[in-house]
């Protein structure tokens, strides 16, 4: 019972982060399921089945708050679904022993990207309002969908920064669009795991508790996307993912316990420094935006 309550809280927290940041529901949930001993394929399968409900709730909430660009949803979502089905069938064919380090490695890379991306650069500024071309969105969707299913997460970490960097959509619409299109990815990934693992590959207890927590958080996350500093949140989530998956990888390679301990301490210190840096940068940006503009001196004065 305690495990199910914990999973519900994980689902709530992961969806809160995902809905506000545009990423990290699958990465966070799968990472924590692996930490409690779940098999990689079963963890990813259960998370994606839960995501059918959480992404539907999140998409509806973002739509009601005007955070969705529907021109982009299908262009990236359909290729993402194709990639997700392929990734799910790929992961289903691996043994647990072979899949664990692969999944943790993918999650570690995605977590590192989130940590560095939001700590160092924050959110890019918008540069235009032209529709994003299919030639850009289709390959992005294929890669993001494949990583999402095979690694237990990746749709947001791949799609959100790419759309933000394009400068074509304002940040809240990037987040709402990625969350809404992920509904298609979750359906396709679940279908792939059903083909590869059968119904026994899903832990319905995990699915239900993650779903309850995620659906409860979706409306709040869609509202908070306008309030929370994404830079700080990205650093917090990225560091958590890096720390937990580094621990999994080191233990899988039979590294001495002392080395594991000191490695995790070093990562934790870097994580704390990254959050502190993001906090200072966010405050500096707020001060700069609040400062009155300096008027240019008139000629002849």
Automatic annotation (TrEMBL):
Q: Write down the Pfam families for this protein, in alphabetical order.
A: TauE
Predominant cellular place of this UniProt entry's protein: membrane
Membrane-spanning residues where?
A: 32-52, 73-92, 98-120, 174-198, 204-225, 259-279
Membrane association type: Multi-pass membrane protein
Q: Which GO terms describe its cellular component?
A: plasma membrane
Q: Where in the cell is it found?
A: Cell membrane; Membrane
Key words of the record? Cell membrane, Membrane, Transmembrane, Transmembrane helix
Q: Which InterPro entries match?
A: TM_pro_TauE-like (IPR002781), TSUP/Inactive_protease-like (IPR051598)
The family line of this record is:
Belongs to the 4-toluene sulfonate uptake permease (TSUP) (TC 2.A.102) family.
Under PANTHER family, the record lists: MEMBRANE TRANSPORTER PROTEIN MJ0441-RELATED, MEMBRANE TRANSPORTER PROTEIN YTNM-RELATED
Protein's name in the database: Probable membrane transporter protein
- Organism taxonomic ancestry: Bacteria, Bacillati, Actinomycetota, Actinomycetes, Micrococcales
């Amino acid at each position: 019972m305690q495990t199910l309550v914990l999973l519900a809280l994980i689902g709530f927290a992961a969806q809160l982060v995902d809905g506000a940041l545009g990423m990290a529901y699958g990465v966070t949930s799968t990472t924590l399921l692996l930490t409690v001993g779940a098999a990689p394929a079963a963890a990813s399968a259960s998370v994606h089945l839960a995501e059918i409900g959480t992404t539907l709730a999140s998409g509806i909430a973002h739509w009601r708050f005007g955070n969705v660009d529907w021109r982009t949803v299908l262009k990236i979502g359909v290729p993402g679904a194709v990639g997700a089905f392929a990734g799910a069938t790929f992961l289903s064919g691996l043994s647990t022993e072979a899949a664990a380090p692969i999944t943790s490695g993918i999650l570690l890379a995605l977590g590192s990207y989130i940590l560095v991306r939001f700590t160092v650069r924050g959110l890019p500024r918008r540069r235009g309002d032209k529709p994003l071309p299919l030639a850009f969105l289709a390959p992005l969707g294929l890669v993001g969908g494949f990583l999402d299913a095979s690694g237990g997460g990746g749709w947001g970490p791949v799609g959100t920064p790419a759309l933000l960097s394009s400068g074509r959509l304002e940040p809240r619409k990037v987040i709402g669009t990625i969350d809404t299109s992920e509904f298609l990815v979750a359906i396709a990934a679940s279908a792939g795991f059903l083909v590869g693992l059968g119904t026994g590959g899903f832990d319905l207890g995990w699915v239900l508790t993650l779903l309850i927590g995620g659906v409860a958080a979706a409306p709040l996350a869609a509202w908070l996307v306008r309030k929370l500093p994404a830079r700080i949140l990205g650093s917090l989530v990225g560091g958590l993912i890096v720390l937990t998956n580094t621990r999994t990888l080191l233990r899988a390679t039979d590294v001495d316990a002392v080395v594991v301990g000191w490695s995790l301490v070093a990562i934790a210190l870097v994580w704390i420094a990254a959050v502190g840096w993001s906090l200072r940068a966010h405050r500096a940006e707020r001060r700069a935006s609040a400062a009155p503009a300096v008027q240019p001196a008139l000629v002849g004065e």
